[in-house]
């Protein structure tokens, strides 16, 4: 028999941890002295302790380990737990690589410019957005501004006359093979789409911009005249983060007032991305 202190030393765990394992039924001593309460373990239990330590090193929780070290555990159950943990580790690995790429990029910025870039890229998921909107096509980038502005005004008028409240403005942009930009512009809308039917303006519809698993996002402060610079900075930083554009980009106008002074505007640029091939 091995006293708890020696057993802890052999297994390279603390006595406190062994007592915890005993309390939760994960590894109970082979014998407990009824008079002193001293715990003793059999030499064979060292193999069980080593397995617990190894599984803890793989990131399994104690509840999962309890299942995995049971004598009646099936191979299918073990395979399922290990496969799930493999998927978790793979995801953690990808996140760590992305964080490493971000750190390397910022170090490069500092070395080249002696300062952090004003545009900070964050990769996050985007929820689906239901919007009342209009669509249009611009032949070139300079045409977007004159087209989009009136679109928002027209949609806002239809929503208001239908008894709704124009909420957060959203725009989506997608370039085709000919270089034309397809535009969807409108407002978040949670009302009845039928209320917009027969309104005074044609072409207003309700559609859902789908949820996005990963999007590279930056915040643009100020006028729409310089938003192209922020978009360019965002796109240029994607390769260093191991991702590439996937799908149409969005602009979420967090604050779009006062209308006559865009210096106070706050716009989040949202570019869906996938892992670079």
TrEMBL record:
CDD domains: HTH_BmrR. Gene3D superfamilies: 1.10.1660.10, Regulatory factor, effector binding domain. Pfam families: GyrI-like, MerR_1. The keyword DNA-binding applies. This is MerR family transcriptional regulator. Keywords: DNA-binding. InterPro entries: AraC_E-bd (IPR010499), DNA-bd_dom_put_sf (IPR009061), GyrI-like (IPR029442), MerR-type_HTH_dom (IPR000551), MerR_fam (IPR047057), Reg_factor_effector_dom_sf (IPR011256). The keyword DNA-binding applies. Residues 1-71 form the HTH merR-type domain.
């Amino acid at each position: 028999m091995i006293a708890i202190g020696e057993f802890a030393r052999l297994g390279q765990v603390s006595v406190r941890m062994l007592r915890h394992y005993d309390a939760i039924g994960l590894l109970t001593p082979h014998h407990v002295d009824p008079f002193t309460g001293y715990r003793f373990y059999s030499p064979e239990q060292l193999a069980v302790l080593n397995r617990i330590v190894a599984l803890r090193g793989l990131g399994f929780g104690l509840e999962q380990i309890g299942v995995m070290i049971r004598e009646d555990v099936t191979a299918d159950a073990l395979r399922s737990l290990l496969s799930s943990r493999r998927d978790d580790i793979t995801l953690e690995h990808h996140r760590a690589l992305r964080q490493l790429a971000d750190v390397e990029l910022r170090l490069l910025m500092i070395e080249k410019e002696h300062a952090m870039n004003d545009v900070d890229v964050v990769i996050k998921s985007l929820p689906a957005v239901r919007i009342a909107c209009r669509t249009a096509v611009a032949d070139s980038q300079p045409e977007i501004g004159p087209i989009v502005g009136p679109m928002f005004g027209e949609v806002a008028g239809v929503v208001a006359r239908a008894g709704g409240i124009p909420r957060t403005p959203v725009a989506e942009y997608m370039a085709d093979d000919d270089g034309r930009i397809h535009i969807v512009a409108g407002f978040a809308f949670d009302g009845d789409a039928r209320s917009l039917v027969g309104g005074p303006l044609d072409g207003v519809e309700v559609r859902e911009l789908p949820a996005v698993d990963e999007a590279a996002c930056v915040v643009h402060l100020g006028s729409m005249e310089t938003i192209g610079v922020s978009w360019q900075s965002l796109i240029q930083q994607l390769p260093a983060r191991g991702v590439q554009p996937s799908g149409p980009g969005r602009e979420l106008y967090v604050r779009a007032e006062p209308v006559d002074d865009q210096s106070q505007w706050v716009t989040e640029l949202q570019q869906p991305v996938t892992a670079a091939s």
